[in-house]
Amino acid sequence: MKRLVVSGCSFTFEDWNWPKFLGEHYGLELNDITNVGMGSQGNGLISKKLIYAVTESLEKYKPEDLLVGIMWSGIDRFDFHSENNYKSSNWGNNGHVNSIHNPTNVVKDKKWYLINPGWGGLDDPHPLMESHYKYFHSNIGAVVSTLQSILLTQWFLKEKGVKYFMTTYMDIFNKYGEHFLDNPEIKYLYDLIDFNNYLPIKGCYEYVRENYPQGMPSDGGHHPHEDGHKFFVNNVIIPFLNGEKIKKRKLI
Questions:
Q1: Which of 144, 174, 152 is nearest to 50 (CA)?
Q2: φ and ψ of 27, to 5 deg
Q3: Residue 56: which H helix or E strand, with range?
Q4: Which of 32, 124, 190, 239 is paired with 200 by a 20 to 30 Å CA distance?
Q5: What pLDDT, in 10s, does the model give residues 137-148?
Q6: pLDDT per residue over 46-87, tens digit each?
Q7: Does the predicted TM-score (pTM) go above 0.85?
Q8: Comparing C-alpha atoms, which of 148, 168, 194 is closest to residue 44?
């Protein structure tokens, strides 16, 4: 393996997150890792950026030289493309989260906007964000959109012959209740997902919290510390890629 390509949200994009330690395991430097993760982005952008990054990588590398890792994010995060230049004092990046580029780019032009329900409590949220969650969002629709992103990405990677694994930043599939995935609008898509390439855990947050609590913030925050990411790689990702059983409470 010569290149690692990853996508995700704030659990992925920092240079001290899990991709760093996975790359080190394979003898890669940071410049051998294509990381298109970004804080607060949802699964539509995670998929689009990953597909484009892999397409670009395949111009230089053979499929067998690549490893792809995806950490899916919140299903209620949304993105849209617009030729308009929308601005807000509280649209993610402006004075709230400096690492977010909003609008962001998939290929070249920064015309993809992301919205996050976690920003709703901010002062002066952008009216487009308020309108989306008031008039257009539904839990069923959000889950369907995420499943479409997952399936599109899986089918693309399989068609290209690229080895990959997927996981989630948190337990996104059970967010709305035990039987929510049985909804007929959802189930036919959920049943198409190939979980053979999924890490057998609820999510990164849950695994680290339950098995290595010292790797989590003491104030109850959801983002693992650097040593939490290292623990996650050593105890989940690497054993999974090696075909080993995922062990619990094995401190490294």
A1: 152
A2: 75, 25
A3: helix 43-57
A4: 32
A5: 999 999 999 999
A6: 999 999 999 999 999 999 999 999 999 999 999 999 998 877
A7: yes
A8: 148
Distance CA 42, CA 70 (A): 12
pLDDT tens column, 82-111: 998 877 655 555 444 567 888 899 999 999
Q: DSSP label at 177?
A: -
Give the domain ranges of the chain: 3-76+137-241, 81-126
Q: Nearest Cα to 46, choosing from 154, 137, 180?
A: 154
Number of Cβ within a 10 Å radius of residue 194: 12
Integer Cα distance of 215 and 232 in angstroms: 9
- The pair of structure tokens assigned to 117 is 């329900």
Looking at domain 3-76+137-241, its CATH superfamily turns out to be SGNH hydrolase (3.40.50.1110)
Distance of CA 115 to the CA centre of its chain: 15
Question: Measuring CA to CA, how many Å separate 105 from each of 37, 70, 89, 157, 251?
Answer: 12, 18, 20, 21, 39
